[in-house]
Every structure is written in C-alpha cells, then in structure tokens.
Amino acid sequence: MNHHPARDRLRAGVHGRPPLPARLEHWMFALLSDPDACEALLAEHGSPVNVIEPGKLPRNAAELVDAGARHGVEVGVFFARKANKALALVRAASDAGHGVDVASESELRQVLDAGVPGERVILSAAIKPDALLELAVRSGTTVSVDGPAELERVAAVASSAEAVARVAPRVAPSPATGLPPTRFGVLTSAWAQVDWARVPAVQVVGVHAHLHGYAAADRVAVLGECLPLVDALRAAGHPVGFVDLGGGVPMSYLDDRAVWHGFWAAMTSGNRDEAITWKDHPLGTVYPYWQEPVRGGWLDGLLALPLADGSGTAASGLASRGLRLHLEPGRSLLDGCGLTLARVAFTKERSDGVGLVGLEMNRTQCRSTSDDFLVDPVLVRRGAAGDAYDGFLVGAYCIEDELILHRRMWFPEGVAAGDIIALPNTGGYLMHILESASHQIPLARNVVPGPDGWELDAIDRPA
Question: How many Å apart are CA 349 and CA 361, to the nearest integer?
Fold first, then answer.
C-alpha cells in the first residue's frame, strides 16, 4: 500500500477494525482537509449532500478505449445513467465522445434534452411502456429488445410513427454455458425463430447482452453466442455494427489486497459477537471492494480469451467482422467521481451499552445491492478532539436496524455532534440506486463544480 502522511492523518480519525482505508482522489483530499468548506456545503444544501466531480469519468473511459485499441477493437463506452442521476456526468460522458445507457423515459428525456444525440444512446430498460418506446424510436435511440414479443411492439410503434426503429436483440446465455439464468433477453434459439428479413420498420444495428457479475470469461462465453446471431442478421440484410456486453466492468475501492484479505480473515475467525459488525452480520452478499484486474487491464484479458468454438480470440471474433464492442459501465466509470457528506447528530448508547453515532441521513443514501459499503469513512472534525469512542453509524429512519454501515467504527480521538462524516467514492450506485424519501425526508441534494465553486447539479434545479 502507498502511504501518504497527510492522507493517513486524515484517515486516522475513524476506521473499522480491521480497517478498510479508502482510496482518495486529490479533489477528495483537498475538500475533506477543509472543514469549513464541508460545513458550508451542509449549511447550504442540508445533510447529507452528494459531492460529484465528473473529471475522472473521461480518464476511466479512456482505459477501456485504449485497451480495445491495443487489440484492434473499437470500444464504445456508454455511461450507465442508473448508476448516478447527476446531469453533469451525462455532459462529461458526452463531451468526451461517449454515449449513455438509459433505463426509463425520464432518463431518456433528460439525456436527449442535455443534447446527447439518440444515435449515442441505448435504451436497456427492463420495462418499456409504449410512450418510452415511441420516444426512443422518434429520437433514433437504439432499443435493447428483450424478446420477440417486445420486438413486435417496437415494430408496431415504429410503423405508427412512420419511422424506422434501431434495435439490438438482447441475448440470454444458454444453460450449456454454465452461466446462471437471467431475466434479461432470450436464448439465441428464440431469436433464430424470427424472420428478420420480414420484420417491418426495424433496423438491427447491434446485438446486446446483460450479465450478472464481473467475470471476463462469462462475457466471452456470451460473445461466442452473439457472433453467429450477428452473421445471421447480416445475411438477412441488417447493418449490425456492434456487440454490447453491458456493464460489470470491475473497479477496486481499496488499494491494498492485504487489508481486504485481512478483513475477511477477521470476519471468519469466529467468536466475534459485535466486535466487527452489527448483530454479527455475516456480510454474505457484498461487492468485491478490492479486486484486480480492473477496467483496462480487465478488458485486455477479456479480449485475449479464446472463443469456445476455437475460431480465435474475443478480439479476433470482433475485429474480423468489423464489429465494435460496446460496454455500459456505471460504477467503474464513476470511480473517483463522488463522495457523500453527513452531519453527526448525536452520540449515545444502545440500551445494552453499545455505542451509536447518529447521522443526518438514512441508509438508502449510501446503499446498493451489496450488504454493506466496505470502505472506511473519513471524520471531518469541527470541534476539539476528545476521548476514544467506538460504535455504529445509525440513520434517520425509525427502524431498529437503521444502519448507515454495518461495521463497527473506532474513533481514536472521539466524535461529537456537529462533526462531519464523509463516505468516499460513493458516486457509482451508492448515492441514488436505492435512495428513498420515506418519512417525507427530502432526497439528498447533489453538487458539482461550477465557475464559482460547488453548485447544484441541474437535476436538482427547477426546470
């Protein structure tokens, strides 16, 4: 692990045990080293506040584009909008020449209103009402089609609009691949039953897949199923130009393999009681907060893997057909792009003496499908240091297990009401994917860089 004394001092105010120290971008370190600036953001926008810095998005996307170029494959990056709703991130992706993946009518309309051309948007929504399909068709947005019945609906909408729909049939991997079943798409055998030469008002421009997890080999397995479908679609007269393998591009929140493995060694040691997690929660379903390779290195490995039919590598299968590889990263594209600030409301003890640190936020404001966010927070102290304290970060919902983090936190020099807790690197999914306004508590505001400092993102400004 690379040690930076100033950053180590910043991290020292609070940590789990074992610690999982956050990787901090320079802009994060600069902000968190300025308690007055953090307090000013909370005073103006309320607690919590999401601080979003889009500047790292182009860097992360470039890793993927460059990896493809090393293998002779053109890579198209489409920002998964569901990962974060801030419109500044849409602009950052578009300004860097990338596209956007949308999953609802509101997302699509906002992206189009932001000036992103439909040709650089893919609609991958799980549920597609007719109004959404009509907007997609009229704007030239590519529709990821989940099955023959949905294809018929798209064709009907396009015919009614006197337009031609751009579509990408979504492929579900065959059980023969050993991959788990998915609700997204259908088997290639189902797509083979479609008479593609006779489907009205539809132009097939690509083939799409959505996979759970992050394994490169799984994506090569489904790519091997997509390529024969591409060949059949082209034979039917369709200008198929890409295969889209969706998201699941890995990132790492931690710099150090050793701290990650040390954490899990402690978690599996037995006799923990609540020394590590609330009510000894096992954290059975969590994101791999340390992993390698990530982004560009991961894609290098993917493109070098052999196709199952022995015809060559993933890269050669794409390049020999002149196909682009499209990816829809969310979390990994937003690595380094955001953090969440929340004010400490109180410290107290549970009825059995376990320490509690109340934050002015709720658990949905730092939550994904993972059981917990396994990154140590940062304490921004507003008052004097005090006595050591340990306990759990709890939130505003009137629920017994209303935890911001399930891990017990240690404060070597104490913590007090008015201090600020920062949750680093929450830009991808943690801020928004499950956020709720339950109890009529307003959603967190989102701030981005502006000409005069931090300002509200357009998503929070009145139309």
Answer: 19
